[in-house]
């Protein structure tokens, strides 16, 4: 097997993922681009495992399995952060996230699950 084709494919996938992380503004698309980069790394690990005979058998496949587990955990935490960001800001645009200031306080009505700004008489 010629390892050039999988390596070039992995490089293209990784480059596409880097482009997606740098250019996208939507947080969900950024997470998808990170997944694309992790899949490119998996392709390199499995290709290296099949072409290079190391002292440990199937070491590239084991590392690829660890990367898959890491990607699943990253998606779980990332989507939880994106959902919380959407609840607070009503937008998942990465450019709108303030990194240098504190988040505004959440009103008690929103924290208790009631709509904000609606009087109690109207809710009943």
Summed up, the helix count is: 5
Write down the secondary-structure element order. Answer: HHHHH
| Helical content band | 55-70%
**Global shape:** elongated
**Main β sheet profile:** none
Poorly predicted tracts of residues:
none
Brief description of this entry?
This protein has 124 residues and is an all-alpha fold. It has helices spanning 4-23, 27-51, 59-89, 108-111, 120-123.
Explained architecture:
The protein is elongated and about 70 Å long. It has helices at residues 4-23, 27-51, 59-89, 108-111, 120-123. With 124 residues, the chain is an all-alpha fold. The mean pLDDT is 81. The protein starts with a helix and ends with a helix.
Features:
124 residues, mainly alpha
Question: Topology, pairings included?
Answer:
Elements (H helix, E strand, L loop, with lengths): L3 H20 L3 H25 L7 H31 L18 H4 L8 H4 L1
Helix pairs in contact: 1-2, 2-3
